[in-house]
Amino acid sequence: MRWSWIPDHAGDLAMTTLEHSAIAAVAVLCGLVLALPLGVLAVRFPVLKGAVLGISGVLFTIPSLALFILLLPLTGLSYETAVLGLTVYTLVVLVRNTVEGLASVPPHVREAARAMGYGGTRTLLTVELPLALPVIMAGVRVATVMTISLVSVAGFIGHGALGQLFIDGFQRDFAVPVIAGVVITLLLALVADLALVATQHALTPWTRRGR
Amino acid sequence: MISFEAVNKKFADGTTAVRELDMEIPEGQLTVLVGSSGCGKTTTLRMINRMIDATSGKVRVDGRDVRDVNASTLRRNIGYVIQQSGLFPHRTVGDNIATVPRLLGWDRKRVRDRVVELLDTVGLARDLAGKYPHQLSGGQQQRVGVARALAADPPILLMDEPFGAVDPVVRTLLQDELLRLQDELHKTIVFVTHDIDEAVKLGDRIAIFKTGGHLVQFSTPAELLAHPADDFVADFLGSERGLKLLSLTSLADVPVEPVTSVTESTPIAEARRAGDGWFLLVTDDNRPRGWLHVDHLPADGVLTDAEPIVAAGLSGNASLLAALDATVSSPVGLAVRVDDDGRVVGVSSPQRINERAARFRAQVLVP
What we know:
heterodimer, A: MetI-like fold, B: alpha/beta, Rossmann fold, CBS-domain, six-stranded mixed sheet, 14 helices
């Protein structure tokens, strides 16, 4: 084992880690931007609920490698393909949790908002979504951790960030980059998760216990 | 004033919640809608602020058909209190109370002042403003619910079983406070309950609904108890109608008779000479403690340590029902009377209370 490879490539590793984080973050954000309105639609119009949940579920079952290959004719071997593929995977968790979060809002609270003279949009933005936040954030955490590990798969289309280390190590029969990639991916997932927990804690002061 | 003219409400599933309702709810009074579940009382309430729209007929608030008013605008001018308070769990008590004033675009200072004022009004400590609803007891949450409904000082207050989810002790307290508030505020309150005792206690007028959405009787509590319109109403009022009627009149006109009372600091030896039977033990500032019998006194010491049969003092505001209850709970069959400061002024006998009851019955029972 030539562990010195790691300090020798510290700069590259940092850049790759950053790239990895950026791809994952953009994918989850795009997923959220799509999932929130889809979730709201599914709750508002129960007819759509089955379709929305069904489609996002079916997309999730496409093997990840196959999905990237299917996207190739559309977006080629590009960064967009990587982000698009990863976004599709986040949908299943994010849509489902948005729907469940909105459904968990107590009916009498929604009722009270109406009775105070809140319109539908104001109720959604200032009452329902904030109250659904803990469940939505739980989905964001799962989606984030999942996406951070999935980015590597995009290595097959050349945008795997830390995933490139696995390919590189495998092709050269050299384990150090692989080990470094795995450890950094794990740490990244851990840090991202902790950051999300902290964000949620800050955003939902009412869920804290104690008198 | 709120009026219903030939109002019907049919739900999509075909059930009729309200049938041909004609009713005028008087201004500045507390009107209770009462009936068993599924009788249309809540539907009736919710048609006032358009939470539900009538299938046919007209609901008017101050002469205007509510359908001609934008629903949100209408609701901002009608306070609404629901069971389990319906507070926003993600907003502090202060922000909850500030809901409607903020919707109406009040400036920050005015909103803040109003929140403090309302916390005082409903008897909550000011430092609760920063707490979240889950940090409060059920009774406190319900008070916040009332404060929130009153925030923009709406002339009308709708209350849908507001005290249904709190324990009986707190419920009694909240009922008393609602009556006190109403004494000051004179809102037009429409109050839904399934509890006839709550209706009799709170209502200036009571509307009794029957399953299927019929209004069976709409009258004052005394009229209702004295002259139930039909067997349904009589059944609903229950078997103790005569006694309930006595809860509607006060002890004020019942004569006060003298009583032998002895203060706590009296030595036992002296207390023995107070009489040959029961006497009333009072604190040194003349508040009632209870009844003691000379034969059951300890050998020596002072009366402070004695354990009397506890008797609560009744002021002139107490009902005849409470007075009768006091006489049957007392070993001498007398109700202890106190002034507004809680100091003993004498006793009333069941005979005198019954005479007053008979006169009251005569007044309300004569058709």
